Amino acid sequence: MKPIPILIFLALLLGIALVSLSLGKYPLPVGEVAAFLAWKVTGLGHVQPERIPLLENIVLQIRFPRILNACLIGGALSVSGASYQALFVNPLVSPGLLGVLAGASFGAALGMVFLKSWFAVQTATFLGGIAAVVLALFIARIYQVRSTLMLVLGGIISGAFFTALVSIVKTLADPYTQLPNITFWLMGNLTLADRATILRMGVPIVLGILGLLLLSRQLNALSMGDEEARSLGVHVEWIRGLVILLATLISTLTVVLGGIIGWVGLIIPHTARMLVGPNNESLLPVSALLGASYLLLVDDLSRTLFTVEVPIGIVTSLVGIPFFLLVMKNARKGWQ
Amino acid sequence: MTGLIKARFTMPLDTFSLEVDLSLPHQGITALFGHSGSGKTTLLRCIAGLEHTEGFLSVNGEVWQDGKRFLPTHQRPLGYVFQEASLFPHLSVLGNLTYGRKRSRRELRVSLDKAVELLGIGSLMDRKPDKLSGGERQRVAIARALAVSPRLLLMDEPLAALDLTRKHEILPYLERLHDELEIPILYVSHSPDEVARLADHIVVLQEGRAVAQGPLAETLARLDLPIRLGEDAGVVLEARVVEKDEPWHLARLDFPGGQLWTRDTGLSIGKHVRVRILARDVSLALVHQEHTSIQNLIPATVEALAPDEHPAQILARLRIGPSVLMARLTERSAHALDIRPGLELFAQVKSVALLDS
């Protein structure tokens, strides 16, 4: 199959974003939203002047941050998933492999029980995620530095440890106020983050994704096998360390933005690999674009399907599992 | 120490430990020869820096490892060819070749064109690895190892994963590397055939120790070689084609001290060839036999006798000018003919294997 150009995926994402901007409790015509955006960006075209305040409010103030949020989270989880899959040469690996999601959950839960400010909770979430990966790396290091198997085991242990800690915090939490908050958070939700947070987290997430894209060539070498990569002059430890650092960073930040959103980081890289093959130089950007598109679509579903909004983490799992079964049927294809 | 590869390593392995202290020539092909599990691949990995162990390594005066100083693999200017080539599945042959190349900021010792030409893969450049045969894949892998402009080429049984036909397909290319490149090659092998054909220098490894080493012809002719070669015991001679007997399809080869008739496989006069003469193909006669079908009767002097693997047989080393032959005979006939060191006789060579294609 001929690789599908990255531009097509970009166009797909922009199209879905445009549709998403027009969807909601107060539906807007897609054409009007498009015209408004074009006018906003270029100053050209025509928008009815009396509609401008309304459009400003709904499109820019209310819907845009949320759509940006979905794109950031979807893109970040998919890229870090794809990077991990390349790093561990394993299609069943997801961003949570080294325990980052469990650690961030613990940080968030702990913050919600013991800390006052929202910013402090976000900081705790971030630190929790980092701490879990550091623990996993530490466990791996005790035994053998170079083995990826030990890294995986370290991640499992660290993940289990932090999951247990989350349960402890839950039992300590006030069952009427704090516990529902924690539970809700762990379901994954795009309404949690405010505009300022999204912008603040957006910068490091985008930088992290770009960093991983820059490493995609070296990631190719790693998926060929450590020793061959070394003999071709690749500094394996460095690349691996950098990839883990960046992937951890961006996946922790997604938890800060939207809680735990499962499956995206597993199925999107899979799908992308089936579409464009195993070359990380195209796989990573396509994963980012596809992941962002996917989470946008799922968010549209969770916003519009029912009168009450369903937490997006639940929808990604519900949609993701059957989808994954379908994908798994052809999963080995993209690895050959 | 320029002109040498000095390697000293100590490394505990499962049942024995690798303990070597070698000075290898910084040119030609040096075979690291031994049975499976003798530590030869481990030694190669130590040299590549894939095993981090105690030791010392310098290549042509440049120290790669010494005490605390340890140049990691990716900083060593070497090419490594593994038993089985893993190429990037998504890149064409050309893409695979240039992958490592883009990474090497060192001066180019081998141009890409040269590597492609040497391995004969010019017509494969646009193909994807899954469209290559096993032999072609390995040739691409060798070209890729060359394309990073190594100062040392390490090959770990590059033919082991291939069937006999593929092996014969690749061997000529390896010979070309030997003839046309100035990069020293360390070649791990357990096949006496490959070693006889390719190597200039040999290190025989047994249980992690170098039990014999030296120039190939000299070392193979040693009767006290601790490693048993069995049917493969024999010598290698460098010879030159000097005459052709066209009607009979024969060619005469001159080697230092003597001459041999062999089948003419399209040899041209003046060509240098390497021949291998197995001990089992050499018999002895005290007088010049007139009534024999054997074409090659070479005057020789017995230099030494040694017991062979089976008690019924012995090995004799024969001196022919500066060259050496080996003969296998039964202990009984040695006794009957009173063969002893110093005796002048005739070596009857039944079969000569031309090693160059």
Largest sheet of chain B: 6 strands, mixed
Question: Which band does the percent of strand residues of chain A land in?
Answer: under 5%
CATH superfamily of chain A: ABC transporter involved in vitamin B12 uptake, BtuC
Tell me the CATH topology of the largest domain in chain B: Rossmann fold
Mean pLDDT of chain B: 89
CATH architecture annotation of chain A: Orthogonal Bundle
What does this entry look like structurally?
The complex is a heterodimer of chains A (336) and B (357). Chain A is an all-alpha fold and 336 residues long. Chain A is built from 14 helices and no strands. By secondary structure, chain B is of the alpha+beta class. Chain B folds into 2 domains: 4-220, Rossmann fold, CATH 3.40.50; 234-354, RNA polymerase II/Efflux pump adaptor protein, barrel-sandwich hybrid domain (OB fold (Dihydrolipoamide Acetyltransferase, E2P)). Chain B has 8 helices and 21 strands. Chain B has a 6-stranded mixed beta sheet with strand order 7-8-9-3-10-11, sandwiched between helices. The two termini of chain B are 36 Å apart. In chain B, 42% of the residues are buried. The interface between A and B is medium-sized, with 18 and 26 residues.
Summary keywords:
heterodimer, A: 336 residues, ABC transporter involved in vitamin B12 uptake, BtuC, B: 357 residues, alpha+beta, Rossmann fold, OB fold (Dihydrolipoamide Acetyltransferase, E2P), 2 domains, six-stranded mixed β-sheet, 8 helices, 21 strands, globular
What would you say about this model in short?
Chain A has 336 residues and is an all-alpha fold.
List the SSEs and their pairings.
The complex is a heterodimer of chains A (about 325) and B (about 350).
Chain A: H1 6-22, H2 30-42, H3 52-87, H4 100-114, H5 118-143, H6 148-172, H7 178-187, H8 195-214, H9 216-222, H10 226-231, H11 236-258, H12 264-276, H13 280-304, H14 312-329
Helix pairs in contact in A: 1-3, 1-13, 3-8, 3-11, 3-12, 3-13, 4-5, 4-6, 4-7, 4-11, 5-6, 5-11, 8-11, 8-13, 9-13, 12-13, 12-14, 13-14
Chain B: E1 4-12, E2 17-25, E3 29-33, H1 40-48, E4 54-59, E5 62-66, E6 69-70, E7 78-81, H2 93-103, H3 112-119, H4 134-147, E8 152-156, H5 164-180, E9 185-189, H6 192-198, E10 201-206, E11 209-215, H7 216-220, E12 234-245, E13 250-255, E14 258-263, E15 272-278, E16 282-285, E17 296-307, E18 313-320, E19 323-330, H8 331-337, E20 344-349, E21 353-354
Parallel strand pairs in B: 3-9, 3-10, 7-8, 8-9
Antiparallel strand pairs in B: 1-2, 1-4, 4-5, 5-6, 10-11, 12-13, 12-15, 13-14, 15-21, 16-20, 17-18, 17-20, 18-19
